[in-house]
Amino acid sequence: MNAGSLARWFVVFAFLVFPGAAFAAAPLDIALSADGRNPPSPQMGDRLTFHSVIRNTGSAPAQGLVAWISLVRVDAGHERPVDLEDWSALKALTRSAVAPGERIEAEWPMRLIQAGDYRVVISAVDRGAVRVVTSPFADFHVRRKPVVESRRILPVAFGMPFLLGGIVLVRWARKR
Amino acid sequence: MSIEIADLKLVLHGRPILNGIRMSMREGEIYGLLGENGAGKSTTLSVATGLRAATSGKVAVLGMDPVRRRADLHRAIGVLSEQGGFYGWMTAHDSLRWFAQLYGIRLSRGAAADLLVRVGLDPGNRGPVRVFSHGMKQRLGLARAILHRPRLLILDEPTNGLDPRGRKDIHDLLTDLNRREGVGILLCTHLLEDVEQLCGRIGVIRRGETLVEGGLAELAVPRGGLQDYYLNLVGTENAS
Amino acid sequence: MNPILSLTRKESGELLSSGRGLAWLTALTVVLSVLSLLLVSDTELSLLDNAQVVYMVMGTIAALGALLAVVSGSDSLAGERERGSLIPLLLTPLRTDEIVLGKMSGQVVAWCVTYLLSLPYLWAVGGGGQNLPQAILALALFGTPLVLGFGFFSLGLSARFGNVRTALSTSLVALALLASPVLLGPGLRQSAVGRMFDAVNPFSAALNAFDSVVIDSQPFLAQATRFAVVLVWLLLAMAFAGRSARDMEI
């Protein structure tokens, strides 16, 4: 059995087992673009904004829509999903229903915490969906900005306790 | 009158502590307040110095209400409390000079040294008070009590824990203060020897109540001395 | 010298001269040093945005200042009582409110020393970045009433309980409760109860002000409500301390 006939069998099977799910899921379309005011070569500490438009292209309303933002680091040797905790306060949006043809526009602001190559994507599902719908990727690079300098910290971090300790010792020696 | 107390009653947390204290201490005399441990001596002193308000009765010290004119009263009296209450990290010098500041007095190093000599402490000692013996702390407490030249001294167990030499030194100092400077002294103690050597009049209290008050000569001498009189008095009361 | 100033000098002397006080200050610098060293040695932390790092250090300084204030406040009157030095103090011509004022001034000095010791750390982690002067000013403006409020509150408990251990444990519970937003994280703070708690909690007000001024570069004027919260906290704690000392039993 070749792949094409397997796929056809799968569709027939899905129709028989999940008739509601297969055909009630509203087709969603997601567009993603970077804000025109974003810095062209962002560095750590800068803020970026992305705009998404989620559109119900089907004829039935999409019930219980959830859309969320995902960020992955993609530079070689550092590939991993990023915990958005420090990056963005807005991580997801929800709508109880999206009417056919309706557009949901959203802004996704983020603060750049770490240097590297990143790929951002918006995903969405509705209650009847059988698969997740994703936007195209938006890629960006964050330049490194050394913010905590050891040149300043090390003398202070070692100097202050030693200074106080020295005062304690001098006072102790004087008392004796 | 230095101290005048009439029918003093004090109730704390619903419990009667003082049930009728009376006391008449004249200007410039040394008065002994006697009583066993827990009789109410220290509590009476706390009312007389304005640290506690009486529930009822009359209290006047140097003609002042101790609660209403507490600050004025404290400028006029010197108190040696049972607990030394010094800051262990200060030297004796620093301690006296610091307390003097609280009285608004600028005590020079020389004046502080004189005070220390007067109570029998070495003015050259630069050690912190925390290493002082009990006797040294008592002497320092006495120096603190007289540093602002009070008219009345209230001393709670001043010779407690002192050796015979130390007790004699304190007796001499108190006698000197009384005779040469006219300072009245209220001596609160359970050491009868102190009372016999120093006091002209005494009051005996027991269970928060004054049992008897009068001249030492008229009360104790006809009854075989203070010890016999006191034990007889307290014993009689215990038996009753 | 004014008697209240003498008392203040004694209180600050205890902090700056006694072994216990110096040990506290040394511990403070050690904690800030460890935090700073973590910032350079930990790759995640060292790459944090500059303002974020300054904010973290400010929060730590405020928390340590409050902890020191709570410990010294709990000891202030109850400790004197337990060591037998309260009665000689009460037997001086100083009024009770003057004694309390002297003790409070001692706490002000302690916070000033803490603040001054923390400045090199703020400079070390925030120098060359954004909003360092604002951070230093915000720590003074919001940290001072916050920390002193905790100190005065503990002083009141110290007078009320007359026992260092009880006063200290109660003060620490209060400190942990009010500092809980820092421990709870943003999730719980977004609930209705969390938002209400945040609105009246002086710790949250100070931290949110640090966040707004240092990270979000907002003007100080926009922090008026938060300043009012920490100021009310300070005044309430002051009134509580004064009232408790007046009612104090010897």
The residue-averaged pLDDT of chain C reads 88
**CATH top level class name of the largest domain in chain A:** Mainly Beta
| CATH architecture field of the largest domain in chain A | Sandwich
Largest interface: A-C, 30 and 35 residues
In CATH terms, what is the fold-level topology of the largest domain in chain A? Immunoglobulin-like
**Residue fraction in strands of chain C:** under 5%
Class computed from helices, strands and strand pairing of chain A: alpha+beta
N- and C-termini, Cα separation of chain C: 27 Å
Query: What is the domain tally of chain A?
Result: 2
Kindly name the structural category of chain C: mainly alpha
pLDDT averaged residue by residue of chain A: 83
Shape of chain A: elongated
Radius of gyration of chain A: 26 Å
Q: How helical, in percent, are the residues of chain A?
A: 25-40%
Which spans of chain A of ≥5 residues are poorly predicted at pLDDT below 50? 1-24
Helical residues, percent of chain C: over 70%
Q: What is the strand tally of chain A?
A: 9
> What percent of residues of chain A are in strands?
35-45%
Order of helices and strands of chain C: HHHHHHHHHHHHHH
Descriptive labels:
heterotrimer; A: 176 residues; alpha+beta; Immunoglobulin-like; 2 domains; six-stranded antiparallel β-sheet; three-stranded antiparallel β-sheet; 3 helices; disordered N terminus; B: 240 residues; alpha/beta; Rossmann fold; six-stranded mixed β-sheet; 9 helices; globular
Would you give an account of this structure?
- The complex is a heterotrimer of chains A (176), B (240) and C (250).
- Chain A has helices at residues 3-17, 19-24, 150-175, and strands at residues 28-34, 47-56, 62-73, 80-81, 92-98, 103-111, 116-125, 133-134, 138-142.
- Chain A is built from 3 helices and 9 strands; from the N terminus they run ααβββββββββα.
- The relative contact order of chain A is 0.20.
- Chain A is an alpha+beta fold.
- In chain A, strands 3, 4, 5, 7, 8 and 9 form a 6-stranded antiparallel beta sheet that branches.
- Chain A is elongated, with a radius of gyration of 26 Å.
- Chain A folds into 2 domains: 3-145, Immunoglobulins (Immunoglobulin-like, Sandwich), CATH 2.60.40; 149-176.
- Chain B has 240 residues and is an alpha/beta fold.
- Chain B has one domain (3-86, 151-239): 3-Layer(aba) Sandwich (Rossmann fold), CATH 3.40.50.
- In chain B, 38% of the residues lie in helices and 25% in strands.
- A 6-stranded mixed beta sheet of chain B has the order 5-6-7-3-8-9, with helices on both faces. In chain B, strands 2-1-4 form a 3-stranded antiparallel beta sheet, with helices on one face.
- In chain B, helix 3 crosses helix 4 (109-118).
- Chain B is globular and about 45 Å long.
- In chain B, 45% of the residues are buried.
- Chain C is an all-alpha fold.
- Chain C contains 14 helices and no strands.
- Chain C has helices at residues 3-17, 19-41, 43-46, 50-76, 78-82, 86-90, 96-126, 132-161, 164-178, 180-184, 186-189, 192-200, 202-215, 224-246.
- Helix content of chain C is 84%, strand content 0%.
- The two termini of chain C are 27 Å apart.
- Chain C is globular.
- Chain C has one domain.
- The mean pLDDT of chain C is 88.
- Chain A binds chain C through residues 44-45, 86, 111-115, 144-145, 147-150, 152-161, 163-165, 167-168, 171, and chain C through 17, 19, 22-23, 25-26, 29-30, 32-34, 36-37, 39-40, 44-53, 117, 120-121, 123-125, 127-130.
